[in-house]
Specification:
The complex is a heterodimer. Chain A is α+β, with helices and mostly antiparallel strands. Chain A is 29% helix and 12% strand. In chain A, strand 1 (3-13) and strand 2 (16-26) form a beta hairpin. Chain B is α/β, with parallel strands linked by helices. In chain B, strand 9 (184-192) and strand 10 (198-202) form a beta hairpin. Classes of the chains: A alpha+beta, B alpha/beta.
C-alpha cells in the first residue's frame, strides 16, 4: 500500500552541510515525522531530529517543511500532492547543532529574563479564588507548547542576529501578557517591563507568529496588541508627559529598570589588566598522561566560579570553635619545632 | 586516546524532568541543596504533558462529601488491594495541599462557580475529584513547575549573579550509570545528547524520576524517552523493583490512522458522556461489569444516561469502570469479531452532546483529532483500542521517604518509576497527584539524607572508566546490528507475548526470546559519530529496555492469577492468597534478573475499617476476614 516518495533533508552541522535526497516509502495516513523515523530505521540511523509525544502536545519536532515552520508530527502527508517533493530543513533562526536539531538556548535565556509569577501577599494556598471568565484569557496563552515556531518565524530575529539581545520574541510576549492578565498576579509593571526590557516595541504586528502557532493562540491580537495598546496609553498620557518633563525619566521608570533580570552587559577589564585576554581565550593545556597511557578521566567544571572547596564538600567554614585545636608554640617545650632551632 | 569528561559537584541529582523530578528538585533547592536536574529532552517537554484528564485530590470543591478517606478507598479498590496502603494513604491526605501549592506557583486551573478549583468525574473516583485545565492538565503542571524553577533561579541570580548557582537544568542529557561507593550512591555518569560529550555528577543523593517503560511495546502512548532507564539504573545499583507484571493498557488509544496509533483519547471523553460501541452499534460495556463492581454501576442505558445530570440518585455508566476492565472488554469485543477494520471499537461523543459543548469541554481532543487524523469528533465517532500506557511497577520504596529498598542508600524514586502506590492498577488522575506528593517527599528526604551524612562517598575512577567503555561500545561497532531493528524485535516480543492477555506458554517463550535478544543487544552497533546521534542513543537505551522487559515477563509468569494490569488467560480469577504477595526483582552478580516473593505490608486497623465487610470479602483470605471481624467487634 506504500508508495515511494521523494524527500530532501538538510544534513550537516555548524561547520556546514547540504540538502540530501532520499526516496522513502509513504503509507496512508502518515505524517512527516513518520517518514523521518522510517529514514532513521532503514537508511540513515544517525539522522538527528528531536521528537517526543508525536501528538502535537510537546512541541519538540519543530522544523521547516517546504520552507514553512511546522511540527513534523502534525504535518499530514496527505496535504502534499502525490508527486510533490518534500524538503525538510532545520529552524533557520537558531544555530545548527546537527541535521534538523538546532540550539534553542535563546528561548530558555529569554524565559529566565521574564519575571516570574508574583503570588499575592496574604493569600494562603487553597484560598485562591478566581472567576472562570477571568482565568480564560491567561489560559489561552498557557496552551503554549513551546515549539518556538513563533520565535523562529519572527522577522525581528529571523535574519537579524543583532536583535536577539534586546528582543524576547512572541513566546515571551504572551508570557508577559498571561501574567498581566492573571487575576492574582501581584506585579503591576508587566506592560512597562515588556516595553522596556523585552523589546515589545520592535514588533510591528505582521502576525507571522499567529499564523504558524500550532495551538492557534491569537498571539498578535490577544497578547501583543493589548500589551502595546496599554503601553501606548501610558506613554501618551498628558499627565505622564508632564511628569516626564518634571522628573528625570529614571526616577519615573525606576521600578521596571531596577528589577531587570537581564544579565550584566559590562565588557572587558579596566585598569592595569586592560587588554589582557580572558582566560577563556587562552589555548587549553593538555592534561598529563598517566603510567597506563590514559589520561586522568575528568576535567573539572563547576557551576560556580572559584571551584570546589580545597577542604572538601563536607567541611563547613568557619569551623565550630570546639573543633579547632591550636597549640600555641612555646619555645623550649615544643619538640616539634624546626630542627634547626635545636642546639 | 583519552576522553574528556566534565565533572560536577552537587548535593542532590534528580534524574528526570517530568512532574516528579521537577517537584523533587524544587523541594531540594528549597532545602538549600545544590541541585541538578537531568532532562533527557529539552526542559519542559517531559511525558507529563501528555496527561490530559487531571490531578486527583479530595478537595471537595464540587462535592463536599469527598475527603481523603474516600479517595484512599477508591485508590485501594482501583489497585485491587495490592497497593502499598501507606503510600495510598499519604497520597490521599497530601494531594490537596500539593495542588493548592501549584496555584501559588502560578497555575490556572478551571474554576467552579464560586471561584474554587473545579473538579471533574473520572473512572474509579466516587466523587468529582480531578483538578483540571480543559484536557491539557499535564501541560499546565509541567509549565507551572518549570516556571517555578525559573523563578527560583531568578532569586539565585539576584543573590549570586548566576542563574545556575543552586539549581541547574542539564537539558538533553542522559544518565547511563549510577556510581557507588560501597553501597552508597556517589554519583551519576552520562552524556550530553547534543554534543556526545560525557559528564560525571558527583553527588551523595540521587532521585530517580525517569517515568515508565512503554517504548518496549509496539502500541504505546509513551514517547521515546520511556525506556525504563530509572528502573534499570536502580536494579544495577542494587535496588529492587516490585509489581513489574502490572502494566496499564489505556483502553482508548487511537487505532486509526496508523501514524498516531497508540495516542490517547482521554478518559474524560467518557466521563463527559462518550460511549463505547462495537461494529454492530451495540453499547457493549453493560455486558462486562464484574461482580465486585456490580453495585456501583448502572444496568440500563437509561439509568446510565441519567447519571450525568443526577449522580446522587443514579449509578454510573459502565464506560467509567476502571481502565483495566474497559481495556479487557474492548480487547474481547475485537477478538470476537465485533471490532472495526483497524482493530478497535467506536468511541462516540458526536451523538451525545452539541458540537459547541464538545469543543469547549474537550478542546485539545477536538484539535488533535482534526489535525492529526482529519476526524471531526463532533460529527463522527473515534476508533479506539487498548494501548500500553503506564507501568504500575517500579522501584520498591519506603512509603514515607521515597528511599529505594535493597542494599543501596542515597537513592530515592518518585512518580511512575516507583512502585507500590497504585497496586495492580492505577486510577486515572492519580498519577499527576502521585508525582506531586512523592516528588516532594523524595526531594525533602534526599536533602535530609545529605544533611545526615558524615562523609561524602567518593566516585572510583575505575567505575567511571567502565561506564565510559559501555557507553562508547556501540560506536566502536559501526557495523554491529541496527538498534532500530532490535527495538522493533523487542517490541514484537513484548507486544505479542507479554501483552494485555497473557499465557504461561507464551511467557516462557518470551523469556527465551529475551535471552536471544540479550546476545544481539550485546552486539549492537551505531553508525556515525557522537554528536546528536539518535542511533547511538537508542543503542545505549536498549540494554535498559531489555532488563526491564525481563522483569515484567518473569513476574508475569510467576503470578498465577488475574488482577488489575495483569491478566492470565490460564488463571482468570483473582486469588486472595496472591493478594498477599509482592514479586520483587533484583539483579544477581551475573546481571540476571532474580525474582522473589515478599509479603505485602499489612493495612493498619483504622484504615481497613474504612471498608465494609462485603467488599473486603472479595479480596481477603478467610483468615484475614476473621482477623477483620475480631477488629470490628472491639
Amino acid at each position: 500500500m506504500g508508495t515511494k516518495r521523494h524527500f530532501r533533508v538538510w544534513r550537516g552541522d555548524e561547520s556546514g552541510g547540504d540538502i540530501q535526497d532520499y526516496d522513502v516509502e509513504v503509507n496512508d495516513g502518515e505524517v512527516v515525522l513518520d517518514i523521518i523515523h522510517r529514514l532513521q530505521a532503514t537508511q540513515t540511523p544517525d539522522l538527528a531530529c528531536r521528537w517526543n509525544c508525536k501528538a502535537g502536545k510537546c512541541g519538540s519536532c519543530s522544523m521547516e517543511i517546504n520552507g514553512k515552520p511546522k511540527l513534523g508530527c502534525m504535518t499530514r502527508m496527505s496535504t502534499f500532492e502525490e508527486d510533490e517533493t518534500v524538503t525538510i530543513t532545520p529552524l533557520r533562526t537558531f544555530p545548527i547543532i546537527r541535521d534538523l536539531v538546532t540550539d534553542v538556548t535563546f528561548n530558555y535565556e529569554k524565559a529566565r529574563e521574564t519575571p516570574a509569577f508574583a503570588p499575592p501577599a496574604g493569600v494562603a494556598p487553597g484560598q485562591y479564588r478566581m472567576k472562570q471568565v477571568d482565568v480564560e484569557r491567561s489560559q489561552e496563552f498557557r496552551k503554549c507548547i513551546e515549539c518556538f515556531l513563533c520565535q523562529n518565524t519572527c522577522h525581528v530575529v529571523r535574519d537579524h542576529e543583532e536583535n536577539k539581545a534586546a528582543f524576547s520574541g512572541p513566546r515571551y510576549f504572551i508570557r508577559a501578557a498571561e501574567l498581566d492578565m492573571h487575576p492574582l498576579d501581584a506585579r503591576t509593571d508587566r506592560k512597562d517591563y515588556a516595553q522596556a526590557e523585552q523589546g515589545l516595541g520592535f514588533c510591528n504586528i505582521t502576525k507571522c507568529c499567529t499564523e504558524v502557532c500550532p495551538e492557534h493562540i491569537k498571539i498578535t491580537d490577544n497578547a501583543i496588541i493589548p500589551m502595546k495598546e496599554r503601553v501606548v496609553d501610558r506613554r501618551y498620557d498628558p499627565l505622564v508627559w508632564l511628569g516626564r518633563k518634571i522628573f528625570r525619566r529614571d526616577q519615573l521608570d525606576g521600578s521596571a529598570h531596577g528589577d531587570s533580570m537581564a544579565p550584566s552587559t559590562s565588557v572587558g577589564v579596566t585598569g592595569v589588566a586592560a587588554g589582557t585576554p580572558f582566560s577563556s581565550a587562552r589555548p587549553s593545556e593538555a592534561a598529563p598522561v598517566r603510567d597506563d597511557g590514559r589520561m586522568d578521566v575528568a576535567e573539572l567544571a563547576l557551576p560556580q566560579q572559584g571551584g570546589p572547596s580545597p577542604f572538601g564538600d563536607d567541611q563547613e567554614l568557619p569551623l565550630p570553635p570546639g573543633e579547632i585545636v591550636y597549640n600555641h608554640p612555646a619555645p623550649g617545650k615544643d619538640d616539634t619545632g624546626p630542627k634547626g632551632d635545636a642546639h | 586516546m583519552t576522553t574528556r569528561i566534565e565533572r560536577h559537584h552537587y548535593d542532590v541529582v534528580v534524574i528526570g524532568a517530568g512532574g516528579a523530578g521537577l517537584r523533587a528538585a524544587i523541594e531540594a533547592r528549597l532545602a538549600g541543596k545544590r541541585t541538578a536536574i537531568i532532562s533527557k529532552s529539552l526542559f519542559g517537554k517531559a511525558h507529563t504533558v501528555m496527561a490530559e484528564g487531571g490531578a486527583a485530590a479530595a478537595m471537595g470543591n464540587v462535592n463536599s462529601r469527598d475527603n481523603w478517606m474516600v479517595h484512599f478507598r477508591d485508590t485501594m479498590r482501583g489497585g485491587k488491594f495490592l497497593n502499598n496502603f501507606r503510600m495510598a494513604e499519604l497520597h490521599a491526605k497530601e494531594a490537596p495541599e500539593r495542588i493548592w501549592e501549584l496555584e501559588t506557583y502560578g497555575a490556572l486551573f478551571d474554576r467552579t462557580k464560586d471561584g474554587k478549583i473545579s473538579q471533574r468525574n473520572f473512572g474509579g473516583h466516587e466523587y468529582p475529584r480531578l483538578a483540571h485545565v480543559g484536557d491539557r492538565t499535564g501541560l499546565e503542571l509541567i509549565r507551572t513547575l518549570q516556571q517555578k524553577i525559573v523563578s527560583l533561579q531568578q532569586e539565585d541570580f539576584a543573590e549570586t549573579g548566576s542563574y545556575d548557582a543552586k539549581i541547574k537544568v542539564f537539558a538533553e542529557t542522559t544518565i547511563t550509570e549510577l556510581l557507588l561507593d560501597g553501597d552508597q550512591v556517589a554519583g551519576a555518569f552520562g552524556y550530553y545528547r547534543e554534543s556526545g560529550e560525557f559528564l560525571l555528577l558527583e553527588a551523595p543523593a540521587v532521585v530517580l524520576a525517569t517515568g515508565g517503560v512503554g517504548r518496549s511495546y509496539k502500541v504505546t502512548s509513551n514517547s521515546w524517552e520511556y525506556t525504563g532507564d530509572g528502573h534499570a539504573l536502580a536494579l544495577r545499583a542494587g535496588a529492587t523493583l516490585i509489581n513489574m507484571e502490572f502494566l496499564q493498557f489505556h483502553p482508548t488509544g487511537m487505532v486509526w490512522p496508523p501514524s498516531v496509533k497508540g495516542i490517547l483519547v482521554t478518559e474524560s471523553v467518557r466521563g463527559d458522556g462518550g460511549v463505547l460501541r462495537n461494529s454492530d452499534g451495540k453499547r457493549f460495556m453493560f455486558d462486562y461489569v464484574p461482580d465486585v463492581f456490580r453495585k456501583q454501576y448502572a444496568e440500563t442505558e437509561e439509568e446510565a444516561d441519567r447519571w450525568y445530570d443526577d449522580p446522587d440518585n443514579n449509578r454510573r455508566p459502565p464506560e467509567l469502570l476502571p481502565r483495566d476492565e474497559v481495556a479487557r472488554a474492548i480487547n474481547n469485543e475485537v477478538k470476537e469479531g465485533r471490532g472495526t477494520k483497524a482493530g478497535g471499537v467506536f468511541l462516540d461523543v458526536s451523538t451525545r452532546m452539541p458540537a459547541e459543548r464538545i469543543v469547549k469541554r474537550l478542546p485539545s481532543m477536538y484539535h488533535q483529532f482534526k489535525e492529526l487524523a482529519d476526524v471531526d469528533i463532533t460529527k463522527q465517532p473515534m476508533e479506539v483500542g487498548p494501548t500500553c500506557h503506564y507501568v504500575m511497577g517500579g522501584v520498591e520504596v519506603d512509603p514515607d521517604s521515597a528511599a529505594a529498598s535493597g542494599r543501596v542508600t542515597g537513592l530515592f524514586a518518585a512518580g511512575e518509576v516507583s512502585g507500590g502506590m497504585h497496586g495492580s492498577n492505577r486510577l486515572g488522575g492519580n498519577s499527576l497527584s502521585d508525582l506531586l506528593v512523592f516528588g516532594k517527599r523524595a526531594g525533602e528526604h534526599a536533602s535530609a539524607y545529605v544533611d545526615a551524612l558524615a562523609k561524602r562517598p567518593k566516585v572510583a575512577t575505575a567505575d567511571v572508566e567502565a561506564a565510559l567503555d559501555v557507553a562508547l561500545a556501540p560506536l566502536n561497532r559501526q557495523s554491529g546490528e541496527n538498534p532500530y531493528t532490535l527495538q522493533q524485535d523487542l517490541q514484537a516480543v513484548m507486544g505479542d507475548l507479554v501483552g494485555i492477555i497473557r499465557r504461561a506458554g507464551e511467557l516462557t517463550d518470551a523469556l527465551k526470546r529475551l535471552q536471544e535478544l540479550k546476545l544481539r543487544v550485546a552486539n549492537v552497533g551505531a553508525a556515525g559519530g557522537r554528536r546528536y546521534n539518535p542511533g547511538w542513543h537508542l543503542a545505549i537505551d536498549l540494554r535498559n529496555m531489555l532488563v526491564v522487559s525481563e522483569c515484567t515477563a518473569k513476574a508475569a509468569l510467576e503470578r498465577e492469577e488475574s488482577r488489575g494490569g495483569h491478566t492470565r488467560e490460564d488463571f482468570p480469577g483473582m486469588n486472595p492468597q496472591w493478594r498477599k504477595v509482592n514479586l520483587v526483582c533484583s539483579l544477581d552478580k551475573s546481571g540476571d534478573v532474580h525474582l522473589e516473593r515478599k509479603p505485602l505490608p499489612k493495612m493498619r486497623g483504622e484504615l481497613i475499617s474504612l471498608f465494609d465487610r462485603t467488599e473486603l470479602s472479595k479480596y481477603l483470605t478467610d483468615d484475614e476476614l476473621i482477623e477483620f471481624d475480631a477488629l470490628e467487634a472491639k
